[in-house]
Amino acid sequence: MKMINGGICAAKGFTASGVHCGIRHNKIKKDLSLIYSEVPAAAAAVYTTNLVKGAPLTVTKDHLADGYAQAVICNSGNANTCNSNGIEIAEQTCSLIAAELGIKADDIVVASTGVIGQKMSIEPFEKGVKPLVNALSKNGCDDAAEGIMTTDTVKKEVAVEFEIDGKICTIGGIAKGSGMIHPNMATMLVFITSDVNISPEMLQSALSSDIQNTFNMLSIDGDTSTNDMVTVLANGLANNKKITEKGDDFKIFMTALNTVTVTLCRMIAGDGEGATKLLECSVSGAKTLCDAKTVAKSVVCSSLLKAAMFGADANWGRVLCAIGYSGADVDVNKIDVYFESKAGKIKVCEKGAGVDFSEDEAKKILTENEIDIIVDLNDGDFSSKAWGCDLTYDYVKINGDYRT
Amino acid sequence: MKMINGGICAAKGFTASGVHCGIRHNKIKKDLSLIYSEVPAAAAAVYTTNLVKGAPLTVTKDHLADGYAQAVICNSGNANTCNSNGIEIAEQTCSLIAAELGIKADDIVVASTGVIGQKMSIEPFEKGVKPLVNALSKNGCDDAAEGIMTTDTVKKEVAVEFEIDGKICTIGGIAKGSGMIHPNMATMLVFITSDVNISPEMLQSALSSDIQNTFNMLSIDGDTSTNDMVTVLANGLANNKKITEKGDDFKIFMTALNTVTVTLCRMIAGDGEGATKLLECSVSGAKTLCDAKTVAKSVVCSSLLKAAMFGADANWGRVLCAIGYSGADVDVNKIDVYFESKAGKIKVCEKGAGVDFSEDEAKKILTENEIDIIVDLNDGDFSSKAWGCDLTYDYVKINGDYRT
């Protein structure tokens, strides 16, 4: 398997585009994105568990009921959530883009991201769909990745190439963060494209299984968004023997998908709102997988630890504290903790108590922008990883006045 | 019932003191506090649910096994947690102060607050106990309240006077916040004194019941501390007929206790780390008490809403979002939301969707330093309140480099 360029346009038959249609006041920032497959594609999706759901999610669920889709349209700048006419807007959006593309409205995945509870009008979409379709191109991934950004500071795109059944296959993805992100749902917006030939059922099975260890192990701020979804379209143009059951081909697909999703997870965490550092918590030695995940998530979610990481302060007591209140079944007196980055690795806690370490060395390690917090529970065989970011002045700044 | 001065020294027979003994480098800040009852008192306590527990909690639990205590000693600057010699230090502390006071070591409540996992020495205590006992006075509440402070910016003390059985009774308390505070345990350090005559069993019952609606409904940052406890000593010197069962006298005691604990909760929330505003979330119309509490806690815990409140931004979508992911059983389409402060009250959401409101008026309301977020679920008869604070630059600053 190898990483390649092209993002969501890397797979055969996919083009994309992004334009400014006027949902945002800032005319420099694109606010409407389109992904298009030249043939209908098997489609799978996972959605936020928040009871307050964006209208586009309801419409998308309906459209994916048959397991197929051909295009994704997504706007930023308004979440189309808690609006009395939200469903209507989402459905009209699908009709407009379907007519322009010459495909069926119920083959459209529709998504929105931005402020919740803001009135929304169909006008920017009416204006935007024609230039959006005209702009579709094999080089359109960058524009599409920009059009879905909210407080993100960098575009998030990835693609991998691999082989199934002697055929070259591709999976690519784009994502947008970067706040209101928390485990236990399909977090954020992620759109993945592939030319692999796979049944809708196996595609859904792959996605639902993968997110348990990827997007559901990612937290920026503990807030589970109303509009999150992850979708995969797989149009079959790689021409491999169709994957319709578990087996070696499915395993290869899962591995490639996981490479894409982990890469996007790390990109989203590293670009969390206001973040200066990507935090990864690697837990091993847990009694059960559930304990391993619970500990990893609790550590990356701790506001106190996140603030300490911002200050490059090796305050490992906060790691122990977060493990202690996580609810996981652990023996505190067996826990070892290390901090690691490309500047080195340092043990800070052994058997639940402090060990002497060089504060200078710790500072050097924690000043890097990717920090691994390594927790060995020394009490079993299960391990897990979770991703997050530090808590900074800029998180407060960004969220203190987001709407205006 | 009336509010009176004197804090923990207001009740008959209680004196207190606070000194600098050298646990902290900063010589201006007191770091050791003592509360003393001239006669043994019925004692009750609740403790953190964190599996990582400070050594003093273990020692205190042992000492309170018989239901009685006569003094409380508490240091700040070091949590005496995750130390190999923690129990030894806590026990030695009790022996030192007991000898100086001429009472039994197992009648001492011992507590510590500060950095976790820092080595601790008995020397500052050896030096401090004599001046601490010498300083005991009826005017010592201020000094004791200062000695337990960590990142708190203001001392937290309160006292109320009321009547039971024709006798004047008093309850007073001091508390320290102001980070690592989260629902579902006995949060923070709170020491309450009373001259009411009550059995240890009824005292414990009153405390355990009260905290469900007070300290367990308070969150600063989602981090459940390792060292939290709330203790009450009641020495009986008010000379009322001893409360040994439920009834009118017990009800009066509960009401007075609740006045003290709610006041301390609001003080702790308003002085949360970096906080500029006290947030109170008042939920009504819930199907069950559990739903009401779950919603109230979820709202005051949302980092996004806390940041919006700091910016006086009426971003009510974040309230809906936090209700939606809380796990409570709610009908989103019935929810009304208001913001209220002494500058006025404004409806921002009706039946789960936005209503037109004046942004200027909302700004004026949210610029005050005590904000009530009112949520009517319109779906039942249960209500609840939770307390928290805004998320600010200073929270990040304080916690980015707490140890150094």
Can you describe what's shown?
2 copies of one chain form a homodimer. The first copy, chain A, has 404 residues and is of the alpha+beta class. The first copy, chain A, has 2 domains: 2-270, 4-Layer Sandwich (L-amino peptidase D-ALA esterase/amidase); 278-400, Ubiquitin-like (UB roll) (Roll). Helices cover 31% and strands 27% of the residues of chain A. Chain A is built from 11 helices and 15 strands. In chain A, strands 1, 2, 3, 4, 5, 6, 7, 8 and 9 form a 9-stranded mixed β-sheet that branches. A 6-stranded mixed β-sheet of chain A has the order 13-12-11-14-10-15. The longest helix of chain A is centred in the middle third of the chain and has 23 residues, at 248-270. Residues 183-187 of chain A have low confidence and may be disordered. Chains A and B meet through α8, α9, β13 and α11 of A and α8, α9, β13 and α11 of B.
Features:
L-amino peptidase D-ALA esterase/amidase, 15 strands, 404 residues, six-stranded mixed sheet, globular, Ubiquitin-like (UB roll), nine-stranded mixed sheet, homodimer, alpha+beta, 31% helix
Q: How do you describe this structure in short?
A:
Two copies of one chain form a homodimer. With 404 residues, chain A is of the alpha+beta class.
